[in-house]
């Protein structure tokens, strides 16, 4: 069964920006996990890839940046001094690696509370109160709240929306 993808408010904006840079281009939109997108780019199956991480070996530019925030369910309370229960995408996920690196750099104890195969799975687990995750500000919704430094979570770098070009096409 195919899942319907909900486009975040930033995707139309980003597509518009791409259209401004490349006005004669016909866009065919494909939504895949990061690893699959990078494979398609490397194999020359796509001309451009829009990701949140710049792949090595490709001409890339940043379309925009967006604050990266910690999220939990609206009523969720993080226990002070205890291991942070993380909700993350399954491997491979550059975003997952960035979250773990930020926690380890800040020497914050964490454990994997839930691994999800899709972003909708991450959102469902967060909304259910299973733990916290970090995503761009566009993920915010009324049933979530932003957690932060006062709860023992480190500041996170902004998310970069990067367009990478396939030079061979």
Fold and architecture overview:
The protein has 169 residues and is α+β, with helices and mostly antiparallel strands. The protein has 2 domains: 10-66 and 160-165, Periplasmic binding protein-like II (D-Maltodextrin-Binding Protein, domain 2); 68-157, 3-Layer(aba) Sandwich (D-Maltodextrin-Binding Protein, domain 2), CATH 3.40.190. It has helices at residues 10-21, 34-42, 94-105, 119-127, and strands at residues 48-51, 59-66, 68-73, 84-89, 110-116, 133-136, 144-147, 159-165. The strands form 3 sheets. A 3-stranded antiparallel beta sheet has the order 1-8-2. The protein has a 3-stranded antiparallel beta sheet with strand order 6-3-7. The two termini are 33 Å apart. Residues 1-9 have low confidence and may be disordered.
Summarize the structure in short.
It comes from Klebsiella pneumoniae. The protein has 4 helices and 8 strands, in the order H-H-E-E-E-E-H-E-H-E-E-E.
Kindly name the structural category: alpha+beta
Architecture (CATH level 2) name of the largest domain: 3-Layer(aba) Sandwich
Radius of gyration: 17 Å
Shape: elongated
Helix content: 10-25%
- Find the CATH topology of the largest domain: D-Maltodextrin-Binding Protein, domain 2
Residue-averaged pLDDT? 84
Give the termini distance in whole angstroms. 33 Å
The number of distinct β-strands equals 8
By DSSP (H or I, 4+ residues per run), the number of helices equals 4
The level 1 CATH classification of the largest domain is Alpha Beta
* Biggest sheet features: 3 strands, antiparallel
Strand order of the largest sheet: 1-8-2
CATH H level, superfamily name of the largest domain: Periplasmic binding protein-like II
Unreliable spans: 1-9
The amount of beta strand, in percent, is 25-35%
How many structural domains can be distinguished in the coordinates? Answer: 2
Helix-strand sequence: HHEEEEHEHEEE
């Amino acid at each position: 069964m195919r899942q319907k993808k909900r486009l975040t408010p930033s995707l139309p904006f980003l597509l518009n920006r791409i259209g401004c840079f490349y006005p004669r281009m016909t866009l065919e939109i494909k939504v895949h996990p990061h690893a699959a997108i990078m494979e398609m780019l490397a194999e020359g199956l796509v001309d451009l890839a829009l990701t949140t991480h710049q792949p090595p070996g490709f001409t890339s530019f940043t379309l925009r940046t967006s604050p990266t925030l910690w999220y939990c369910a609206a009523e969720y309370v993080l226990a002070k001094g205890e291991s942070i229960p993380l909700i993350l995408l399954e491997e491979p996920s550059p975003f997952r690696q960035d979250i773990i690196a930020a926690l380890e750099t800040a020497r914050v104890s964490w454990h994997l509370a839930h691994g999800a195969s899709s972003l909708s799975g991450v959102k469902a687990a967060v909304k259910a109160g299973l733990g916290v995750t970090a995503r761009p500000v566009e993920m915010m919704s009324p049933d979530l709240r932003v957690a932060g430094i006062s709860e023992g979570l480190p500041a996170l770098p902004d998310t970069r929306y990067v367009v990478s070009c396939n030079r061979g096409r």
